[in-house]
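Suppose a classmate hands you a notebook page containing two proteins, each written out with its sequence and a corresponding row of structure tokens. How would you begin to make sense of it? This section walks through that situation. The first entry is reproduced here exactly as it would appear on such a page.
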Amino acid sequence: MDRAMDRKKAEAAFLAYTAGYDSSNPMIDHKIKHTLRVASLCDRIAAGLWLDRNDTDYAWFLGLLHDIGRFEQVRRYGTFIDSVSVDHAQFGADLLFREGLIRTFPTDSLAEEDLAMAETCIRLHNTLSLPDDLTERTKLFCNILRDADKIDIFRVIDELPFEERIGSSRNLFLAEAEKAGGEVMRCILEHRCVPRQLRRTRFEGFLSHGCLAFELIFDESRRIARSQGYLAHYLAETDADGNPLWNEEETKQLRILKEEIGKVWGGLSCPG
């Protein structure tokens, strides 16, 4: 990059675009706030990696653009579920780089190769894994964006009311709950995400969200996520009054997940 990005203009361009959508819709409001948080987290991770100002600006910009497809996804399909609508990452990259939306953002500080890399990062931000043929620089920025997105997902899943997160009341969920299967537990013990096709039950889905912790690449990302405390709260075993939240079998498996995350993170809760 030849000169510093104008972040104020970039954020204004993003807000001007999203102003075309109904912000009274909680789905739209949520994605605006999520986007700005992810941009800020990209900046923090990049700064924690001691990248220079131009690179931290670039990481921030990727965060600002990464979910641009979500807004039109909601307008056209009324859902964030990619499997019943469109892959939001591919959709957003197409809007930006094939339909020209990127021209509404201040990109004069970016070289052509930086724009091409931005398209790659946006297309890959929601994939289970990255392809092996990326350059080291592309992989670096893909991982910064993917880490930042996951960190804010911990906040999202923790703050959602239980009924919205699980699709069931807690009493009904516990009455129907069955412990996770061996394939899901194997993913936990091998410190990897649970592929969607392995998730048979709501409880396995609950555990799989926690497994995102294994996918954070950078120590700085883990430090930020641990200090925020959202994941630790999400994986709590008791409520504020000390009452158990889970049946005995589910509690055992939840403890295994927490222990394995602790091994990778050097502890799950914020120190001190």
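The notebook's second entry, a different protein, reads as follows.
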Amino acid sequence: MMSRLSKIILIAVFAAASSFILPPSSFAQSGAIKGKVRSNKGDGIANASVTARQSGKDIKTVRSNAKGDFLLAGLSTGVYSLVFDADGFQSGLLQGVEVKSGDTRSLGDRLVLMPDQGNQVIINGSVFYKEGTSLGGAKIEIERLNPDGTTKKLTTLYTNIQGEFIYKQPQGLSTKLRITAKFKGAEGVKEVEVDTAAIYRLAITLDISRTEK
């Protein structure tokens, strides 16, 4: 028969061993957040920074992959704010993102970044009748003039009721743009050299009277 001392030693050993055996729920005390960072045009943004913030402190930061997808894993349960940004874009903030134990919260493509106008070339144009009044509904064709003399069509726009149009593109190498305005057979052309991020303003007056519309 086991002595009283042997029983005490056996119980102590068992208690010590059991302290290293945690219940399954103890391994699932963290969760994750996944999603996609995209532009306002729907394109995924690569290498965007996504930071989970709680009580004013940055908890964890990851980078999006080539498609804009990201995964913030190993987050304690609780409610977080997500701060996200990328070069050439304004910073974004999404608040009230709840993380539950053992769960991955999917945000889909809710993280949307708008272009930073400080890093954009902006063409702000106006089209007028020959009397000088605004011409709405004029067709605007924008082309890039290549060094070899060829052209590449970039976009087609229409002036609003105030006769205005806006074209934006990321800052890049110095280039020349050709802007053509057309309305009822009348046509006007302006060329503008763009080299840095800025707002470039131009006006085109067409040889057509307001009474001819």
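A careful reader of the second entry would note: The two ends are 114 Å apart (CA to CA).
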